[in-house]
Every structure is written in C-alpha cells, then in structure tokens.
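Shift notes (night). Ran TIGR03643 family protein while the centrifuge was going.
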Amino acid sequence: MIKKELTDLDKDRIIEMAWEDRTTFDAILMQFGLKEQEVIDLMRTEMKPSSFRMWRERVQGRKTKHEKLRDFREGRFKCTMQRQINNNKISKR
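Came back to this:
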C-alpha cells in the first residue's frame, strides 16, 4: 500500500487534489511521491464507501486527470494566491 507515513494534513491535501478536475495524478506524484494506484488506495481507506465510488466514477477515463491525455499543455488557470491558500509545496516556477 502506501510506503511512507503521511500526516493528516498531507492526506487532506492529497484528497483535495484528487477531487480537483484539473489536478493530475502526476502532480500528486511529484508533490507527495504517491502513484495513481496509491492515491486510489488512500481515497478508498480515507473516504466513505459511497463517496469513494462517486469519486472513482467521476475520475475514471477523465482526460484532465492524466497528463498524457490532456488536450492542453499551457494556459491553465492558476490563482496567484494558490500557494498561500492551500500550502502547496511546489514552488512557483
């Protein structure tokens, strides 16, 4: 399953990112070191069964969750306050 220990704050952030339509699994991998299957396992253990099923149904096959399937590469919306609001660990580039 999940190899490293995650704090409750990390788990909350991963779940938030997984629910967001435009946040890819690659972004979660880069920030937290969790592969897609590990994110799915985390969601399964941390969420109610009905919420997990709703999330899986929503995410399966969604192009925006997979970097390689996206129709766009640049120009996505990013709030200038994003880092301050959600304590995003990835620095601005």
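The radius of gyration is 13 Å. The chain is about 50% helix and 0% strand.
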